[in-house]
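hey can u check if this looks right to u? its 426 residues, i copy pasted from the old doc so theres a chance i mangled smth
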Amino acid sequence: MRILIQNGNLISMSENREKYEENVDILIENNKVIKIEKKIKEKVDQIIEAKGKIIMPGFINTHAHISMSIFRETVDGYQTQDWLKEKIWPMEDKLQEEDIYWATLLSGIEMIKTGTTTVNDMYFMTDKIIEAALNIGIRLQTTRTLMGYEKKDEERLKELEELIKKYKQDTISFNVGIHGLYTSNEQYVKQCIAFAKNNDLPIHMHFCENTQEREEIKREYHVKSPVEVILRNFSETHNILAHSVKLDSQEIKELRRTNSYVSHCPISNLKLGCGVANIKEMLQNNIGVSLGTDGQGSGSNLDMFETMKFSALLQKGWQEEPEILPAYEVLKMATINGAKALKLDKEIGSIEVGKSADIIMIQLKDILTQPINNIFAQLVYNAKGTNVDMTMINGKILMQKRIVYGVKESEITHRCHEIIKRIEKE
């Protein structure tokens, strides 16, 4: 299958190209980009006319719990740990495998419609999450959530190992998902780290999301700072640390000594009253920062346009420095930085010859996005998920003109409503 996207205005996110190029053609063969030029004249199976539209790599959401779509707006009025213990964990205990499948499909549609092509997920009943991701076509990095204090918890590592052996598809990759330092003791964490090293996998973990978690880590690991645990145990691994809100300046400087990337989830952090991560100092210390939405239970939705806008505005307002975090840097956080965090930057994150064709097309004809004086700022501050006109993942068109192919949205939403009704009755 050869597809030609023609006459698009390209934001490739590649260091080897101009930041913005008008009237560019992109030739895709099977799942790869094979040519980026003006006026490509080759025989193709399909032409996508992109005149006047933005072509860019799909967004990469580096921290989410996509099966939590059914728990959207359950958090109002709760603190993080109270919400988990009193609301979410009791409901999760009632979930069945089929519930996970349908809830993941709901999130898949949401991501495709809002321009996210890759998601880093952490949850359980992972087989059903992978099944749904393969059926709908989203690119997924996943795990079997690892948490524990007892010997029986080692079974979770065996489950992860079985998943890795079972799934070898292009669009599925894995990491070692330690739920958090506060939900596992150091012995178990070291077992997870050894597994990551032996299998050359990144580690994905909640880290310093709120003050209570921070204090629990200090007590459990007998340290003055949670970063001491990272320095002590995670110095030889590739780490994706979700949230990292409660870190002071000295801790951020120490964290740069490790190969750690931060997944910034500003909306969830605000909604749960956790605070604001110091992204300015992280970037100043050369810590890679990507963006995440968290699950819809705390983050409301998976629209990365919202996440980009909040990320930029929060830092500018909090630091009282409107010049920091230029819009193009925020776009990097949502694309190529995310690919680097997931160790997938040789495959995705930018539109380049040889990379997988994970591409979105955005129309900016709305009143809210006219006139265009700065295209990067327009995308970060005024565009929304509904401006995405076409989504392609691994060379396959999953949505065009706002129609997601191969799914029955009404059936999926109905199933998810029924799941919540059942859980509330039990």
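The chain has a mean pLDDT of 96.
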